[in-house]
Design goal:
The structure holds two protein chains of two kinds. By secondary structure, chain A is of the alpha/beta class. Chain A is built from 16 helices and nine strands. Chain B is α/β, with parallel strands linked by helices. In chain B, the strands form eight sheets. Chain B has a seven-stranded mixed β-sheet, with helices on both faces. A seven-stranded mixed β-sheet of chain B has the order 33-28-32-29-31-30-34. The chains are: A alpha/beta, B alpha/beta.
């Protein structure tokens, strides 16, 4: 088994979180110190851009570029928001990260905050992560006492405060603009840009929002440089490591920090302990519930944003959910759509009404009441759900679309046998 | 300006126009639910999808969300877009109940139209429908959530547009709910608009529920006469009664909305108690007999006591025709009057306002929405003219700063700065604020008059310490404002205030600002009344005449002094002394009961009429229906109701101006149009600023602006500044301020059963400090000693009002009419707690 460098999980321990001291000993807050003393906020933006750090929340937007969209003359106060509202089914990397080494996130936020010249940091965390929220609150206090937060950080003139905000708890709060609305006490409905949050976000002020994992990468990039970060990846297009959350019919489900671009087969067979006895790989969701089923033909694919995009798939959050030949994918899709239909914010018609419709059709298929015409209906409706207000519905129909693309025969068996063939 | 091609038609539109709007200009109505011109685009319903073929956007996109850009080619009929829209309709119909037959929206339901036109005829979805619990939202709006298609129009109107927050969105996904946190009466006075904007039947008009389909109604453009703004309405009549009134779009006046007082204020016209037959001494007679009796008695009086023993009183709620006919009658016969106002000072204030309304200063409600600073003096928008508050909110939403100088506890549905000062201080504060807001350099350049006026104006130093900070911030905001509007009331202010407001508007103009002047007048046609008012006697002079026996007969043309006059005892005695009281009116007023001769007149809905609103906009309402007693009332529960005869039962009512014509010349009745035409002729010939008024159907949609300014060059009356107000009350006293409330004080709407359910019970508002000094708590009952006895009322202790004042609503349930003259002051000893 190949041992890959552990960057984000360097201080991960089986029984407790890393202390500030341990984090410092492993090089923690060095990147911040360097940045604050030697680099301008523009330099920070450039370094992050050069490192090709792509947003780890699933959208893969370059983190450096996002910071650059904050105009020089934009008003203050500005905000840096950490998206810790980890609700993508199958995804649990942010929780593990916070429980492993919280100061890495705090340092990442300070760096990103510096890059945006923000005065206020907010960690938006899902309510189920109460323990993580408490850890962060405690460690933020410790960081402040150590001079990493508050006024005049490390004596270099930059000031930032971070607060932890517990979400009221909806999946849609993970969407950038919905999260900002939620933070402002409004309904968590997405807001179609323009204006972009980096121009007018929280209370009409520039706001940069980043995922936990993205922020956690930043201290390392600052300390070791963009080239080092890029070289961590196995593919030419990738950069850095990626935390994969493996689950499903595998022997060792869990969180694995592996190089970007690692082959799916290697993740499953080598790192996640292989398929459980008697199970064969049928398909997986490569990056959470809102990505497309990745069938057998892509078993050896290099897990990187670009390579997956090139074959019409998405890396998403890197949460790999593995299904075997005994799993009914109609039932699995139904399960996912149940989730999305429940979590729709209710703003636009296709998502609010279309998803329950799809759910109804899938239920009928699964219960053996399906009709031939359901297949084109599912296809058409899924296609039209791409014309909804935000990216939620296109994500929600990804499993449905790929179910019909790759497993139409399985769907048809439900219709012809008038029952689920797996039951 | 960018050009776009939509369905092969090219159109050039201003920058910022949405594609859906450009299409509309081409006559292509792209389906819409969430989009509303007043509420803007939010992209929620997705039914306005079209296909973008060329330009910066490609594929199926929402036409409401995209600004027109050069090079765009759009197809509304593209197969993919049509299929998508069909799906949107199908999705919306998944849960929509098929209760159209019992839904009041059926027949004018946007969802119904879109479902039919979208071709969604067969239901494919086999799942169960979602159901919700409905809420009780008060007497005006019926809630039926199962019908909801989640367009968010209601919450956007209610919260964003109107500024009230007790109705909104709750829950999520396909359980999203629109309503209140719990059942209860909606707090906003603009709730009826929910029924207008809801694209289906979630909110429907409750009082007229189950009465008819839209196509059953005689729908007619009409006007609201429940305040002086003159909002446009659509009246719906069926079975000989008006049953519903909706907002009618008017670009200049009310936009798309109206207030609840206006919407439901029409019930005086349909109430069962409305007097429909002529009366002599309380006995029902034919109108001919009543007219004959009136003519005979009047002739006798003229013979015995001369023509000036007869006096006439009109009002500001009559149309211009009636007001003018009354004037013509007095002039021709040598009778006294007419007076249209209850007291001389009010008449003076209205006359000043009308004559100082320079056409270059007058602004419409719509223009006021575009201002960036508004200073309100002596006006309480939400209570006196609710739609003004809504217009001010739009200005505020666009960044405008609002200041209110008024003693009353002012509430407005947006952020504003309130300077609660006593009525005698309003002038000072107005002057000080405006002085602080203009550039002295520009004033010096503007000429001697302006400079002198500026010189004698008090500066911000006069502002009380407690208000200093607020006032100086305000002055700065006003100074920064380029489009400034002064809103001036005419009710509680001193007689000098309207003129001072005009002078200050001129001063702002001298300081190179775009200035608007916006007066509020007491009634719908006070403007018209003012134009007709010359040097005739005032009502109190008429009363003096009655008291000393010179005046023996009074003709009340659509005015009920028993509701409006401030000294009931004096009025009662005077009326008793009369030899003859002739009353013409359209509702069951107290005066009707005292009349020797009563003539039932038609309302706006049966007679039509011309009204001039407070900005000098002459507007006309045609007849909405032919009149008569409603079938429900005449049938007495029987079906079919049968009344034999050739005429419309209860159709004896006629326009007041027609009765007056008959009283004047006794001729056989000419047809309405003829009398109206000759009256309009007379008006054009005799009333100076009024031009030839075209027939109703030729009058422009937004009426015509009357230039009423007396054309004195802008002058700056230094003397007002010098006189100031000498605080003509007693030191250490409380001024009684009579005020309007949104519901419960305005005469016409006080007859509306649904609105009566919304009335608050009357209370006397006083500052908490004054209440404390009097040993009173909020909710205590007090007895206030007025000139003609006591008034007993509950106390409302308020922080946000002037001290040294007691604010009393002219509430229909409060016996406030015990005041001899204004301003009225009482001492602290005159206010006593009543132990219960």
């Amino acid at each position: 088994m190949m041992n890959y460098p552990q960057v984000l999980f360097k201080n991960r321990k089986p029984d407790r979180i890393a202390t500030l001291e341990e984090y410092r000993q492993s090089g923690g807050y060095e990147g911040l110190g360097d940045a604050l003393s030697k680099a301008s906020h523009k330099d920070v933006q450039q370094v992050l851009l050069d490192a090709v750090l792509l947003g780890r929340g699933g959208a893969a937007f370059p983190a450096g570029r996002k910071l650059m969209t904050v105009a020089d003359d934009a008003p203050h106060p500005r905000y840096i928001v950490c998206n810790a509202d980890e609700m993508e089914p199958g995804t649990f990397k942010d929780r593990v990260l916070i429980h492993a080494d919280p100061h890495m996130l705090i340092e990442g936020m300070i760096i990103a905050g510096y890059g945006a010249q923000a005065e206020k940091g907010i960690i938006f965390i899902r309510p189920e992560y109460e323990s993580a929220a408490r850890i962060l609150e405690r460690e933020i206090k410790i960081a402040k006492e150590a001079g990493y937060l508050g006024k005049n950080i490390l004596g270099n003139g930059y000031s930032l405060d971070i607060v932890v905000h517990r979400s009221a708890g909806r999946y849609i709060c993970g969407e950038v603009t919905a999260q900002l609305n939620a933070l402002m006490g409004k309904r968590a409905n997405p807001q179609q840009p323009p204006p972009y949050p980096t121009e007018k976000g929280l209370w009409e002020r520039p706001t940069v929002l980043q995922n936990v994992e993205t922020l956690a990468c930043m201290p390392h990039i600052l300390r070791n440089g963009p080239e080092w970060f890029k070289n961590l990846a196995l593919t030419e297009t990738g950069a850095g490591t990626k935390i994969f959350c493996a689950s499903g019919k595998i022997n060792s489900p869990g969180c694995y920090e592996l190089p970007m671009g690692i082959r799916l087969s290697e993740i499953i067979e080598v790192h996640a302990g292989g398929m459980v006895e008697g199970s064969e790989y049928k398909a997986c969701l490569p990056g959470g519930a809102s990505t497309r089923f990745l069938p057998r033909e892509f078993y050896d694919i290099e897990m990187d944003f670009d390579t997956l995009r090139n074959v019409g798939h998405r890396l998403g959050t890197g949460a790999i959910m593995v299904f075997d030949q005994k799993t009914c994918l109609v039932a699995a899709t139904l399960n996912l759509v149940e989730f999305f239909a429940r979590e729709s914010c209710g703003w636009c018609t296709p998502c609010r009404e279309g998803l329950p419709y799809i759910r109804d059709l899938l239920r009928r298929l699964e219960e053996g009441e399906g009709e031939e015409e359901y297949i084109p209906m599912l296809q058409q409706m899924s296609k039209h759900l791409w014309s909804s207000y935000c990216a939620f519905a296109p994500g929600a129909v990804s499993p449905v679309e790929s179910l019909i693309t790759y497993f139409e025969d399985e769907v048809r068996e439900h219709i012809s046998q008038k029952k689920c063939p797996f039951k | 300006m960018p050009k776009i091609i939509i369905d092969n038609h090219e159109i050039e539109v201003p920058e910022g126009t949405k594609v859906i709007e450009a299409a509309e200009q081409l006559g292509i109505m792209i389906p819409r639910f969430c989009y509303h011109p007043a509420l803007g685009s939010v992209g929620a319903c997705r039914v306005c999808a079209v296909k973008f073929l060329e330009g910066p956007f490609k594929g199926v996109q929402m036409s409401c969300m995209i600004d027109v850009k050069d090079g765009m080619i759009v197809s509304t009929t593209d197969e993919e877009a049509v299929e998508f829209r069909q799906y949107v309709i199908e999705w919306l119909m998944l849960n929509h109940p098929h209760d159209c037959p019992v839904c009041d929206e059926g027949g004018h339901c946007l969802l119904q139209d879109m479902t039919i036109s979208g071709g969604h005829g067969m239901r494919r979805y086999l799942g169960l429908k979602r159901t919700y619990r409905d809420q009780y939202l008060g007497p005006l709006v019926q809630h039926e959530m199962n019908r909801c298609i989640h367009c968010y129009r209601c919450s956007r109107f209610y919260q964003e547009f109107a500024g009230y927050f007790d109705l909104g969105v709750m829950q999520s996904a396909n359980r999203t709910y629109f309503g209140r946190f719990k059942d209860g009466i909606l707090e906003s006075p603009f709730t009826g608009n929910l029924s207008d904007i809801c694209p289906t039947g979630v909110y429907t008009d409750r009082p007229s529920r189950f009465f008819g389909r839209r196509w059953d109604y005689q729908r007619s453009p009409s006007l609201c006469i429940n305040c002086s703004l003159g909002c446009h309405t659509t009246a719906s009549a069926r079975y000989r009664e008006v049953v519903r009134q909706e907002a009618r779009y008017s670009e200049a006046v009310n936009g798309y909305f109206i207030c609840d007082r206006g919407r439901h204020g029409f019930h005086y016209a349909r109430n069962e108690t409305r007097p429909r037959r002529a009366l002599i001494e309380g006995r029902e007679v034919s109108t001919e007999e009543a007219i004959r009796a009136a003519r005979e008695k009047l002739a006798e009086l003229v013979k015995s006591a001369g023509p000036d023993s007869i006096a006439c009183l009109g009002s500001g709620r009559s149309g211009l025709e009636t007001q003018a006919m009354l004037k013509q009658l007095c002039q021709e016969k040598g009778w006294q009057g007419p007076s249209y106002f209850m007291d001389k000072s009010l008449a003076g204030k209205v006359k000043t306002a009308v004559s100082r309304l320079d056409p270059e200063l007058a602004v419409s409600l719509h223009q006021l929405e575009g201002s960036d600073a508004i200073i309100v003096v002596g006006a309480d928008p939400i209570n006196e003219a609710p739609m003004l508050a809504l217009a001010m909110r739009q200005a505020q939403r666009h960044g405008g700063k609002i200041a209110v100088v008024d003693p009353r506890p002012i509430f407005l549905p947006f952020d504003f700065t309130h300077l609660p000062v006593r009525p005698d201080e309003i002038n000072l504060y107005l002057s000080a604020l405006i002085k602080g807001a203009v550039d002295p350099q520009l004033i010096a350049e503007a000429g001697k008059g302006a400079a002198e006026f500026y010189q004698v104006s008090p500066s911000l130093e006069i502002v009380a310490d407690s208000l200093q900070e607020k006032a100086s911030i305000l002055a700065q905001e006003l100074r920064a404002g380029q489009k400034v509007v002064i809103v001036c009331g005419t009710q509680i202010v001193r007689e000098t205030t309207p003129a001072l407001a005009a002078d200050h508007a001129q001063l702002l103009r001298a300081a190179k600002k775009q200035v608007g002047l916006f007066y509020l007048l007491p009634q719908a046609n006070s403007f018209g009344a003012s134009l007709l008012t010359g040097d005739e006697v005032s009502f109190s002079e008429i009363l003096e005449g009655i008291e000393d026996g010179r005046v023996k007969s009074l003709i009340l043309a659509e005015n009920d002094p028993f509701y409006n006059f401030h000294d009931r005892q004096r009025l009662d005695l005077a009326i008793e002394k009369l030899d003859l009281l002739v009353v013409l009116d359209y509702f069951e007023s107290a005066a009707v009961k005292k009349a020797q001769v009563f003539l039932p007149t038609s309302t706006l809905y049966e007679g039509g009429g011309i009204f001039i609103n407070q900005e000098g906009r002459l507007q006309a309402a045609p007849k909405a229906y032919l009149g008569g007693i409603s079938i429900a009332q005449i049938g007495g529960g029987n079906h079919p109701p049968r009344v034999y005869g050739r005429d419309i039962p209860g159709g004896e009512v006629r326009a007041a101006h027609q009765f007056l014509t008959q009283i004047s010349n006794g001729d056989q009745i000419e047809d309405d149009d003829h009398t109206q035409r000759s009256l309009l002729r007379w008006i054009a010939d005799n009333i100076t600023p009024l031009p030839e008024i075209p027939p109703f159907d030729e009058l422009a949609e937004n009426g015509m602006r009357i230039s009423s300014s007396d054309n004195t060059p802008p002058y700056f009356a230094v003397k007002w500044q010098e006189e100031k107000d000498k605080g003509n009350g007693l030191e250490d006293s409380l001024e009684i301020i009579l005020t309007d409330w949104t519901f419960g004080t305005e005469e016409l709407s006080s007859f509306s059963p649904p609105l009566r359910k919304l009335e608050r019970s009357p209370c006397a508002s006083m500052h908490t400090k004054d209440a404390a000094r009097l040993g009173l708590d909020h909710g205590d009952k007090v007895k206030i000693k007025l000139d003609e006895g006591d008034v007993e009322v509950d106390v409302c202790a308020e922080e946000n009002m002037a001290s040294g004042a007691i604010v009393l609503p002219r509430h229909r349930l409060l016996e406030w009419q015990k005041i001899k003259s204004f301003p009225k002051f009482v001492s602290y000893e005159d206010v006593k707690k009543v132990s219960t």
